Amino acid sequence: MLHDIIFIGFVLGHGGDAAQMLELAAGMQSRGKRVKVVVPDLPTTQLFAQQGLARGVEVVRTPLIRADPVAPRQVPADLIRLFCSNPAKLLHLHTGDFCLSRTVPRVMGDLNIPPDKVVVTVHSPYDTLTPEHERAVAWAQAAGQRIRYIVCPSQHAIRTQLKYGVPERNLAHIPNGINTALFRSGDGARIRSELKIGQHEPLIVITSRLDSQKRPLDALASFERIASDIPAHLAFVGLGSLEADLRSKIHATGLSHRVHLMGHRDDVPDWLAAATVWVLPTEAENFSLAVLEALAAGCPIVSTLCKGNNEVLVADKNALIHDVGDVDGIASALRRVLSEPDLRDRLSANAAVTSSKYGVDQMVDRYAALYESL
Prior knowledge:
- This protein has 2 domains: 3-177 and 359-372, 3-Layer(aba) Sandwich (Rossmann fold), CATH 3.40.50.2000; 180-355, 3-Layer(aba) Sandwich (Rossmann fold), CATH 3.40.50.2000.
- The chain has helices at 16-30, 46-54, 76-84, 103-110, 134-146, 155-163, 180-183, 188-195, 216-227, 243-253, 268-274, 289-296, 327-339, 341-355, 360-372; strands at residues 3-10, 35-40, 59-62, 88-95, 118-122, 149-152, 171-173, 203-207, 233-237, 259-263, 277-280, 301-304, 320-322.
- The strands form 2 sheets. Strands 3-2-1-4-5-6-7 form a 7-stranded parallel sheet.
- The longest helix is centred in the N-terminal third of the chain and has 15 residues, at 16-30.
- Helix 9 (216-227) runs parallel beside helix 10.
- Helices cover 41% and strands 17% of the residues.
């Protein structure tokens, strides 16, 4: 069957890049388009496929896509089979990197796939290459020849692409979007009952991957600094490469009864509703879905003002801000939020106002207009 749009994800399946791709696919399907999502056949995409099934979106897991988080190397023969077996009026590729593997546009050229049929969304929070690097040069050339639009969720991603030499005519800015109503409807009382803590006991919540980019160990270290005089609990909701390290350090602090590793959860809105304050000590973001979710839930936020975050968080208006790696700064901000009810109310009200700009329907509408321009 010829699909209207096939979304091909060069993603691991458990991050915001994959989540945004699924939201977009579901949104376009609800607008009458025939869509399919294709992702790598990895353990990390199993849950993603289940989520797609629950939303009525066709998701195919295939070994034809390589997704190595360090150095993905695609196989030309596999990519030929991938594209030939997935005919569509429009191909929309998503990558968790700042560009595709050089093999991908090369194969698209070999197959004579018209550039006007190709859109790529880049989700990487990092801009580590110099413009002279061979990978950046190859990407800029491919963008001009093989891809009609490269979509960037943040303005800093646009600047990164321009720095690498991507022609401005090939760039589009579409911020990420979320189901704001969903994240405003959580049942915090249920979570507090699960944790066996009172409705008014301070609860610090982190809903994020437990990896080095998000710096969860900074959150734990800051909690140690306030734990002796503030009877709060800390909950990590998510999985990641630092989970074992984090578990060991929690045990060493002697705070295991107040620090909770909850793993993956499908009830994030409930956790946000239960939070007295939401924390993300992240070192880099493109346009964080977790931040948007916390804003929609009206959480008082303590976070960094890294690139990406600085396009949505405003210091002392909808968040308290600290520098990356500033554990004392996190602790100080937590003390303020937990001890000043008026501050919490102000941050919460402004957070809800900010989130209204980033609904999933607004995001899908912008992509739909981009598709129509093709």
